[in-house]
Amino acid sequence: DQQVKQNSPSLSVQEGRISILNCDYTNSMFDYFLWYKKYPAEGPTFLISISSIKDKNEDGRFTVFLNKSAKHLSLHIVPSQPGDSAVYFCAANRGGGGKLIFGQGTELSVKP
Amino acid sequence: KAGVTQTPRYLIKTRGQQVTLSCSPISGHRSVSWYQQTPGQGLQFLFEYFSETQRNKGNFPGRFSGRQFSNSRSEMNVSTLELGDSALYLCASMRDRNTEAFFGQGTRLTVV
Known about the structure:
The structure holds two protein chains of two kinds.
Chain A: E1 4-5, E2 10-14, E3 19-25, E4 32-38, E5 45-51, E6 56-59, E7 62-67, E8 72-77, E9 86-93, E10 100-102, E11 106-111
Parallel strand pairs in A: 2-11
Antiparallel strand pairs in A: 1-3, 3-8, 4-5, 4-9, 6-7, 7-8, 9-10, 9-11
Chain B: E1 5-7, E2 10-13, E3 19-24, E4 31-38, E5 42-50, E6 53-57, E7 64-68, E8 74-78, E9 87-94, E10 102-103, E11 107-111
C-alpha cells in the first residue's frame, strides 16, 4: 500500500520558469511533510518542510503548499535553475518521530 | 558542523555472509533512522533508534537489525545476505520530533 504517491515520474521545465512537483498521500494521520532533493548514489538533501497546522511554507525559491482536505502537497520552485535538476522526493511523518514514508520520486530536468 | 557520516561507502559481500554498517549522526541529534533504497522499491524505512532504544520499525525481516550506542552512533547489521539485499543503505539523524531529518551519503552494498 503506497501511502505517499508522486504520480509524475519526470518533469521537464525551462530555466527561469516555475517547477511544480506534486505529491498525494492517503493517511490522514500524517502531520509533518518534507521535500528532499537527491542525486544518484548520494543521500537525500533536505529542502523544505511543512507541518499540518500550516498550508504554506516558503524558503527562498522553494514554497510548499499543503491541502489537507485533498491530501495533496506541492513544491514550487521559482525560478527554476539547471542546478535544480535532480530527483525530488516528498516524505510524510506521523507523530514526529524518525519514520518517514517516501514517495517514489519525480525526476526534474531544468533545461537552459 | 559535521554532517551525518556513514561508513563504509561501498561494500561487496557474498551471499550468506553478514555485514555491519555504521552511522555517526550530527552532534546533538539523538534519533537515527535507517533506510534502504532500491530501484524497484524506492526509499523504505528500516528502523529508528532514539536514546539507544528502537522507537520505530519497518517491514523488514529479522535478518535486519540495528543498535544505537550511548554517543548516538548507530550500527545496522544484515545477516545471511541475499542478492536482493543489494541496495543503497541510508542513515538519517534528527535533533528532535517534528524537525527535519538529515541524511548521510549512504553505503552502497552489493551482494554477489
